Amino acid sequence: MLPYNFQYELKQLLRSRWIQLLSILLLLLFGFSAFNGKQKVQKRKNDIVAAIDEVKENDEMMLKLLDSVERGMTVNVSRWTIPTSPIAVGNYHPRVAAMEPQPMAFLSTGQADLFTHYVKPTVSGDDFALNFTEMTSPVQLLFGSFDVAFVIVYLLPLLIIAFSYNVLSSEKESGTLKLLAAQPISIQTWVLQKLALRFFCLSILVIISMTIVFLVLGLNIGLQIEAFLGVLGLILTYMLFWFALAFLVNLLVGSSAKNAISLLGLWVVFVLLMPSVLNQLSNTLYPMPSRTLMINEMRKMKSDVTKKQDEILDNFLRDHPEYAINDTTQSRGFYHRYMASKKLIKKELEPVVQTYEIQLRKRQRWLDQFKWISPAIITQESLNEMAGTATDDYEDFRKQVIGFAKTWREHFMPFLYNNRDFSQKDYADLPEFEFKVKSKNVFTQSPILMLISLGLFGLGFFVSRKLETDSILNNL
Q1: How many angstroms separate the CA atoms of 133 and 111, rounded?
Q2: Which end of the chain is more exposed for a tag (fewer CB within 10 A), N or C?
Q3: pLDDT digits over 365-408, tens only?
Q4: What backbone torsions phi and psi does residue 419 show, to the nearest 5 degrees?
């Protein structure tokens, strides 16, 4: 009976041109979305390259100025920008701290349209004031980006609904269900077989479409085999969830119209409503402190510290005798006092800054605990992690940049407090930023979606048979 059902169903799908239509749709959707995502990634790369090239040009000019000054020649530049001053080098010739896009970044824009991929920390800049966000269009943020993740999370379930909403109801409405009831097979098993064939056909089409997209975009599947299999596994388990919902609705609802409305309602709940509700609840339970208040507190503290910079410098040199080995430190220029007071300001503001980080971690942990309510959230976050555009990725980037900013600033402190000029031979020792990517397990979420789907299939069998038993008992 099983082989016959598969043959009959496959012929029916081919004659109705469902498979041909899905093949074209999936190829167009995945192809265009992947191309769009690749364009965004390329723009990010170009921006980083342009920033690095600008730094190289400035460095070439700096080395020429240093060479002229060391030869005793007069240079026609502002006095405070002459690179023999370590502070001038630290402020006007910063390094680019860049977050290079990952190989799978084209899959999901994620947080990439909110956060910048590079910053230039300076010696006199504030770590907590580094701008990690960029100006974006509110319209684009409202509608999102048409990337592969959008196709998978939002559009693929709609194709599955259109492909499977009337598997049982069409037989009822055409009058052939009575003939099927005479066969030695239960309705549940028969519906499951029909949906299994549809799932198999759609899975093959998705695998072929994704493979073609990878090859056309020039991505080496052999080198990215683990990531490629992780993406396919996530897509297939997400598809299985929606086929499980279709199985449940086909058995428990009724007419084709009711089935379509029920499945579309579930799509709205899981894809649109649940993520919005969880986000609003997180904002209510864990509101972020006012950034305006923090800035005002920072300005007030700077004003208070400015009045006692000489005392702060004395305490600073007492705590750091390695910076006071040169007697000329007693000249006490502006930056001697400023950098010493800056350390105090940073220390005093740490509790305020940590309030943001603690609240953000609480919010993220709360969302992680309840994201299993919506498979759409699980799939979206998993794709963001695979693409390297998740919130955690940018938070990790921010922490690495702050660490590098501290390294960059402390590199020039001995120059400043020992009144030592910066020279050409010191250029090679300038710190360079290197973004370290954390290793990730790309298969962690697929088992969760698999268990949810199997639970829905089991629920469909149990409830439908219970209703059949109750119906028979009532007719006795």
Answers
A1: 10
A2: C
A3: 888 888 888 899 999 999 999 999 988 888 899 889 989 998 99
A4: 50, 45
**From start to end of 73-174, where are the E strands?**
97-98, 118-119
Burial 425-444 (b: 16+ CB within 10 A, else e): ebeeebeebebeeeebebee
DSSP state of 115: B
Distance CA 119, CA 99 (A): 9
Maximum alpha-carbon separation in the chain: 111
Tokens representing 175?
Answer: 């009058």
State the Cα–Cα distance between residues 159 and 242, nearest whole angstrom. Answer: 10
Burial class (CB in 10 A: 0-12, 13-18, 19+), 276: exposed
Q: Confidence class of residue 327 from pLDDT cuts 50, 70 and 90? A: very low
All residues at 6 or more sequence positions from 207 whose CB lies less than 8 Å from its CB, including other chains: 232
Residues 243 and 160: beta-carbon distance below 8 Å: yes
Measured from the Cβ of residue 124, the count of other Cβ atoms closer than 10 Å reads 12
Task: Provide the 3-class DSSP secondary structure of residue 188.
Answer: helix
Cβ proximity of 197 and 207 under 8 Å: no
Helix then strand count (H, E) for the chain reads: 18, 2
Closest to 316 (Cα-Cα) out of 302, 335, 300: 335
- What is the DSSP code string of 242-262? HHHHHHHHHHHS-SHHHHHHH
> What's the first-to-final CA gap in the chain, in angstroms?
31
Structure tokens at 273: 């409503």
Vertex 394: Cα angle to 45 and 137 (nearest 5): 65
DSSP letter assigned to residue 425? G
Cα 407 from Cα 378, distance rounded (Å) = 37
Q: What is the mean pLDDT of residues 414-434?
A: 88
CA distances to 41, 124, 140, 397 from 135, in Å: 17, 24, 11, 19
Residue 435 CB-half CA count within 13 A: 21
Pair 9, 194: CB distance under 8 Å: yes
pLDDT over 70 for what percent of the chain?
Answer: 76
Instruction: Please state the separation of Cα 14 from the chain's center in Å.
Output: 39
Written as six digits, the tokens of 427 are: 């250029």
Indicate the DSSP class of residue 388. T
| C-beta separation of 236 from 206 below 8 A | yes
Q: How far apart are CA 405 and CA 120, in angstroms?
A: 9
Nearest to 286, CA basis, from 354, 356, 368 = 356
Rounded distance between C-alpha atoms, residue 249 and residue 238, angstroms: 17
> What pTM did the predictor assign?
0.84
Which amino acid type is present at position 404? F
